[in-house]
Amino acid sequence: MTTLIYQPERDCVNSLGIPVDNLTLESAVERIVRMARTRDGRARLVSTLNVDFLVNSLGTALTRPRHPELLEVLRSSDMVTADGFPIVWLSRLLGRPLAGRVCGSDLVPALGERCAREGLSIFLLGGGEGVAAAAGKILEERYPGLRIAGTAAPFVRTTGAGLDTALEDDEALLERIHSSNADILLVGLGNPKQELWFNRNRQQLHTPVSIGVGGTFEFITGNVKRAPEIWQRLNLEWVYRMIQDPARLWKRYTKGLFKLAGLAAPVLATRVAEAFTRGHTAPVPATLPWRQLWSSREQSIALLTLPRYPSASYLALINHEVSKKQQAGELRILDFSRVKRIRLDSQQEYFNLAGLLQSQRGQLQLMGLSPCVRQQLTAARLMDLLEGEAGDALTRLTQRPNSCESFSCQSYSLDDATLVMISGRVTREALRDIGFVECLLDGVRDRSCILDFRNVDLLESSGIAELMPLLKAGAEGTGAMYLSGVGYRIQQMLRMAEIETSATIINDRDLLALITPEQKND
After folding, report:
1. Model confidence, pTM
2. How far is residue 414 CA from its own chain's centroid?
3. How far apart are CA 522 and CA 519, in angstroms?
4. 87: helix, coil or strand?
C-alpha cells in the first residue's frame, strides 16, 4: 500500500515508520528549488512533520494506524522535514540525530528570499478569509522581486456530508492554480486536511512542488506571534505558543507528547538493548556471500544469509546489489533466520529494502524473520512495509502515471444480488476510469449489491467520495447495499471520512448466506 522506492541518495531517519530527511534549513530550501525547476508532469509533496502528524496518523496501536491514508501520504512524501522539536528529540534519543528543526514558519520566509533571487513564483492556498492574500503582500514587500502567482482561501472538504461534492469544487480551484503557472504551491489548510487535499489531487496537479505549511500564513501576517528568538534557540517555542493560547493548546500539546512517549517507548527499549551489542555488528565484506541454490538456462535461485547483527553499511551493500537489474527467472532470497537484532541506525535501509521488494516483486523475497525480529520491526513501524504481497501491497505513484493500474474489479450476477469483488488501491481516478459507480447505480435501486473490500490495499478519501452515491443508493430504492471483507483499515477510513451511509457491513457468514440463499431454508 505505501508508496516507497529505493532512494540511496536520500539521508533519512526513521521517525516511527515515517522517513524524515536529515536536512538543515538551507539544504531543504536547495532541494525544494530543484524540485520546483523539475517540470516533468509529476506533483511532488514536502511534508513538515510534527507531533500532531505522528499522533493523527499512527494512533496508539502498533499495527493499526489511526489514519491509514495520512500515514500513506507522509511515507510517500518526496521530502519530510522535522517541524516540531520533539521529532528532533526523538531522533537524538534513537541515536540518529537530525541536523535540526525545519519548520514551515522558517521555511516559507527562506523560500521567499530564494525564489525572489531565482525568479520562481509561489501560490498561497489556505488560511482564513484574506489571510493568504495579506501574507502574499507581506512576502512581496519583504523580498523585492518575489512573484506571488496567486492566493486562494477556499473551504476545502475532506470529511463529512460535503465530501461527495468536494471533487467538483477542487476542479475550479485546480484551474485557478494552474492558470497562475506557479512553481511552488504552499498549502496552509492544516493537518490532515492539506495532506488529504494534495493526495486526492496529485494526479491532476501541474505545480511541480507542494508544501504543507499549516498555520504559517498566520505567523507571516502577525495574527499569531512567534516566540522570541531566545525561546526558539532553546527549542521552547511550543511552550510560548501554549502560553499564548492555553485553552486550546494545553490539552492538545500535553496529550500529543504523552502519546508520543508511549509510541516511542518500545523503540527506546531497543536503544538501551543496543548498548550491549554495539561491538557485534558484522563487518562489511568486499562482496556478499550469495549462495547459488539452483540454476538452469532460464532460471536461477540465489540465497544470502544475513549475519546476526547486520549494520546499516551491510544492508546498504545488499540494497545496492539487489537494485541492479535482474534477468527474467532470477530469484534472490534474503534469509533473516540468523538475525538477532535490528539496529536503529540501519532503519532507513529497511525503507529502501521495502521499495526494492515492491519494484522486484516475484524476484526478491525476504524470509526467515524470527518472532523477536518481527517484534522489533513492528515497534519501529517497519513490519507492514516489509511484508510485501503477504501484507500491504507496496505501490509507487511515481512509477505509475495513472492510479487505476493497481485497481481491478470483478462482478458476479446472482439470482437477486450483484457481488462485486474489488482489489488494489481505490481512488477517484480508478473508479471513474471504468465508470464503476454508474455501472452499479441503476442496479442497486431494484436489487441488492455486495461490495467486497478484502483485497483492497487502501481506500482513499477520494475513492470514498466517488462511492458516496452508491453507498447511499440502497436507502433510495428497493435493493440494499452491503459491504463485506471490511477490515480494520477500511473501517478506519470510513470512520475518518465521517460520512453517513445506508450500506450495511456484513461478515463472511452473512455474505455466504446472501450468495447462497438456498441455505437459509436448511
Report:
1. 0.85
2. 38
3. 5
4. helix
Question: Domain range for residue 438?
Answer: 403-521
Cβ–Cβ under 8 Å, residues 363 and 286: no
In a domain, 185, yes or no: yes
pLDDT tens-digit map of 407-448: 888 888 877 788 899 999 999 889 998 888 888 877 666 778
Quick check: is 274 in a domain? no
Q: Are residues 409 and 364 part of one domain? A: no
Spatial contact of 468 and 163, defined as CB atoms under 8 Å apart? yes
In what side-by-side order are the strands of the sheet with 330-335? 291-295, 300-305, 330-335, 364-367
3-state secondary structure of 166: helix
- The number of CA neighbours under 13 Å toward the Cβ of 217 is 27
DSSP string, 111-158: HHHHHHHHT-EEEEEESSTTHHHHHHHHHHHHSTT-EEEEEE-----S
Residue 153 lies in a domain: yes
- At 371, the amino acid letter reads P
Residue whose entry in the numeric block shows the C-alpha cell 536503529? 344
Q: Give the whole-angstrom CA distance, residue 115 versus residue 208.
A: 14
Residues 48 and 135: their CA atoms lie apart, in Å, by 19
For 79-132, the pLDDT digits (tens) are: 999 998 889 988 888 778 898 889 988 999 999 999 999 999 999 999 888 999
Same domain, 79 and 213: yes
d(CA 48, CA 80) in angstroms, rounded, equals: 6
Burial profile 279-296: b = 16 or more Cβ within 10 angstroms, e = fewer: eebeeeeeeeeeeeeeee
| C-alpha dihedral sign at 177, 180, 183, 186 | negative
Is position 417 within any domain?
A: yes
Residue 121 · residue 181 · CB < 8 Å: yes
Same domain (yes/no): 296, 163: no
**Which distant-in-sequence residues (6+ apart) come within 8 Å of 278 by Cβ?**
none
